Structure formats: structure tokens, C-alpha cells
Amino acid sequence: MITSPIVSAQNLATQTFVTQTQVNPDEVVTDFEQTLLLIMVFVIMFGLGAGLTPRDFKLALKRPQGLIIGFVTQFGIMPLLAFGLIMLFLFQLDPAYAIPVAFGALLMGAVPAGTTSNIFTYFSKGNLALSVIMTTNSTLWAVLMTPLALAIYGSFIFTQDSQLTIPFTNIVATLVLMLLLPVILGMILRRYSANVGAVMELLGGLVGVFFILFLMATWVPRNWNLLASTPWQTYLVAIGLGLFGIFIAYGIARAIRLHPANARTIGLETGIQNGPLAIAIVLASFADDPNVGLILIVPALYSLFIVIVSTFVTIWFRRANTAAEQKIPNLL
Q1: DSSP letter string, 110-130
Q2: Which of the four CATH numbers 3.40.640.10, 1.20.1530.20, 3.40.30.10, 3.30.9.10 does domain 30-319 have?
């Protein structure tokens, strides 16, 4: 019989942490918030599609370096980073808690880039055109790559004894309905009504910002007890996924001698994941699972803290944007 590494680690841990093994999903996301979230994700993705034109794809194909780099960092670094953080920190905890929380963390590492990365790229004086191309590219590829990443890394964590089955059919269906469909509809709208498409593009970006502010204003006060009882390892995974993702991708981009503005863009695009989408996938795919509340913890914490992390990173990036840097030719 195959034993999950998390289950085996219980016997090796030097200290057992007291954790909640059951969390009511309504404590994490209420029914009203679930409905609002699904609408918001659809509108955000619709806005992303409404901002695309055939010219954007032509330009991307003329300079495919950004697409290639973005694909590698998004679906190469982030799922692997999530897996590493799970192995290092969540294995210390009670398996009844760690296994569902680990799936939420792995999913958070496997989803595509979030549209708020475009906003932070703009304020960090990055390459906004590259940012939009990378977001679009990762969003379209996510229908294939997100389930693939879950299958590859999940095979090492969620085995027969883990009592967690990944509903791949539900996840793919959610990705098609919440990603592919609204993006295509947005592109069609832009094709036949450029003015309305431009408005929807702006609305999609504003909705993404609204989600973060809404989360801070309503979710944190209501879930204060849950936040206080969540182990520090879970916080480290949720915060570290975005923070380490940004700087690992930024370091790789600088190591291969990309323009600093492009390196900042790639860092932010890689580390800023689509938190609302991850939460929507969990709610749609694990609605009847008793562990859905635990699965939601890392996506919810990530969505909360990534805006704080990205704000400080953006401030640091802006300070690094010197006059000498602006004289360097940018080939992307």
C-alpha cells in the first residue's frame, strides 16, 4: 500500500501542532461572497478578453521571447515552488489538516497570473505591454497546464491514503467556463464594438481591485478567529508563494540579462497569481467536500497578502528604476 508523504511525516515530526481539522466553508466564504466571486471572476476575464485585438497577437508572435519566458516562469516555477513549500512546512502538521490545505496551496501555485499584476507592473515602471501579453498567455494555457501541474505534483502528495481525490473533470470545466469562455466573449465584443470593449477592459481591472479591497474590509474582521488559529506554517506558505515567486523569476530574468523593466514585469507576473480564480475553482469543484473550508485557506490568505507583498515590492522596484536604466535598449 502506498502511503502519502504527509501521513508518513506525522511519525517523524518532532512536534505536533494543534490545528483545526474541520472548517465550515461559510466561515471562509459566505454564500453571498461565493456568488459575487463567481461573477467577479467572469467579469475580470471578460475584461481581459475585451482588451485584446488581433494586433496584440501579431506583436506577440513577432517578439515571442516574452511569451516563452512567461510560460516557463508561470507554469515551471510557481507549481514547483508551491510543492517545495508544502514539503518543507505543511508536512509538520496533522495530516487531517495538512492534506486539504496542501491542495489549496498547490492549486494556488498552478493557476495563471492575475490581472492585478498589470496594475503593479504599471506602478513599478515595468513593461506594461509585456505584462498584458504574459497574463493573456498564461490565462489561455491554464486550461491545459493547471490540471497538468496538479496531476504531476499531486501524484507525490495525494495518494490512496490521503483521502483526497482531485476532481479533474470539474476543474477543467470550471477553467473553461471561468477563463476561456469569458475571454473569447470579450474578444468578440471588442471586435464588433471597440468602445464598449474598452469600457469592459477598464471595468475588469477595477473589479479585480475591488475584490482585494472587499476581501480586506469584510473577510478579515469576520474570520479573525480563524486567522488567529491558523498555524504559522500556513501563513509562510501563503505569503512565501507570492514573495519568493516574484524574486525567483526576477532573479532568473536578470541572470539572463533581460532589461530591468522586463525583469520586474516577469517577476510580478510570475508571483501574482489569480487568487479569485483559485477560490472559484475550489467552490465549484469541492462544494460537497467536507474539507472545502480547509482547501480555501491558502487561496484566501494568498489573495489577502499578495497585495501587501506586491505593494512593498513595487516600492522597491520603483526605487531601483534609475536614469541609467532608462538608457538601456529594451528589445521586448
Answers
A1: HS-B-THHHHHHHHTT--HHH
A2: 1.20.1530.20
Give the max Cα distance, the chain: 63
Q: Return the number of other C-beta atoms located less than 10 Å from residue 206's C-beta.
A: 14
What are the cell numbers at 110?
498552478
Q: Find out whether 304 and 219 touch, Cβ atoms under 8 Å.
A: yes
User: Which pLDDT tens digit goes with each residue over 1-60?
Assistant: 334 444 444 443 333 344 555 666 666 677 777 788 888 888 888 888 887 777 777 776
User: What is the value of pTM for the model shown?
Assistant: 0.85
The string of DSSP codes covering 241-298 is HHHHHHHHHHHHHHHTT--HHHHHHHHHHHH-B-HHHHHHHHHHHSTT-TTHHHHTHH
Rounded to 5°, angle at Cα 197 from 196 and 202: 100
The four Cα atoms 319, 72, 171, 116 give a dihedral, to 10 degrees, of 20
